[in-house]
Design brief:
- By secondary structure, the protein is of the alpha+beta class.
- The protein has one domain: NADH Oxidase.
- The chain has 6 helices and 5 strands.
- Strands 1, 2, 3, 4 and 5 form a 5-stranded antiparallel β-sheet that branches.
- The chain is globular and about 60 Å long.
- Belongs to the nitroreductase family.
- This is Putative NAD(P)H nitroreductase.
- Its cofactor is FMN.
Length: 192
Amino acid sequence: MSAFFDVLLGRQSVKFVQAPGPTDEQLDLILQAALRAPDHGAVRPWRFVLVRGADVPALVDVGVRAGIAAGTPLPQPKVDNARKWLSKVPLVIALGCRPDPSGRIPEHESLLAVGAAAMNMLNAAHALGLGAFWSTGIGVYLDGVGEALGFDALDERFMGYLAIGTPIDTPDPVQRPDWRDHVSEWHAPAPA
């Protein structure tokens, strides 16, 4: 098996990371990888906001305020866990999507393109020896969080966060399902 597949098949989510985060050169590679994702119609729907260092823990406060404003405050244990987690994370990349404003390309294709970009970033971080985790917590689905991060509420969709840094611990291997349990094969019907 090639080294490429060793890296690809060895990737797993690593939630608990710490400094150092990616260097500028590594971040450049991670973001270049993101923009290699498929993009039907060259819409370029990707929007990323970098949150670094001391600004990272403030993301919890944004989610808390949005929950209060929505009348659904985040449970205190969830807030406490998010604060503890983000207190060590050196870099968060907020993910946004700006679908085709003309409507020519269906919105779901732009959302898939951003998802593919996120996966490319996760793979790139792993290939560089970093840990990374995609989170849709901390108020991602609450009004106001995306806007607080600079995403346009009318034209863009906030899709979550990628936390990237140096793994705190060596992650335990993950038991993956057998691909055969998730794949079927289609055959054309016999001519009538």
